[in-house]
């Protein structure tokens, strides 16, 4: 398995701070799902300008999250993600890792919600089968911490073979889709919220 097929645990506060920026998160997500792309291609995908995307790609590269790749014609400068997923260590003994990881997680959730709202606003523009497969599902589970961890790990195992950057057996009608999983305890919902 190549390093690009692995999730990377980020423990460097500076890397986490770099990822706590919505454009950088969106750029990394685009490169993980699309594959190599130039700053101009990235700019069109994340609705930004090429010079700003180029700057943000260099910031991500300083932290080993993206890297430049050879261009077929030698003139363009494409970038590729070096990972297909991230894991945060929010239980670190280092408060700066926890603070930076929390900021990155908040930025990621904000981006997920922004993308979902944009999808809902423009859903009527989606044609055919793609309109019928979007989903918004919420579940109130009664689980132990170990069971919730197991559920999340099993979802990851199901999804991982479909990651766009590493999938090479996709059907002809395949396209990029966004999937976000959020799982957390709800202490206020307990029978005894102590």
Task: Return the structural class.
Answer: mainly alpha
* Total strand segments: 4
Strand content: 5-15%
The number of helical elements comes to 6
Q: Compute the gyration radius: what is it?
A: 18 Å
CATH structural fold name of the domain at 3-137: Arc Repressor Mutant, subunit A
How far is the first residue's CA from the last residue's CA? 45 Å
Shape: globular
Helicity, as a percent range: 40-55%
Quaternary organisation? single chain
- Overall pLDDT level: 89
Going across the biggest sheet, name each strand in turn.
Answer: 1-4
CATH superfamily of the domain at 3-137: Winged helix-like DNA-binding domain superfamily/Winged helix DNA-binding domain
State the CATH architecture of the domain at 3-137.
Answer: Orthogonal Bundle
Could you describe the largest sheet, including whether it forms a barrel? 2 strands, parallel
Class of the domain at 3-137 in CATH?
A: Mainly Alpha
The SSE string, one letter per element, is EHHHHEEEHH
Low-confidence stretches: none
Characterize the structure shown:
The protein is built from six helices and four strands. The chain has a two-stranded parallel ribbon with strand order 1-4. A two-stranded antiparallel sheet has the order 2-3. The protein is mostly helical. It has helices at residues 13-19, 22-34, 39-46, 50-62, 95-122, 145-159, and strands spanning 7-10, 66-68, 79-81, 85-88. The chain has a domain at 3-137: Orthogonal Bundle (Arc Repressor Mutant, subunit A), CATH 1.10.10. The chain is 43% helix and 7% strand.
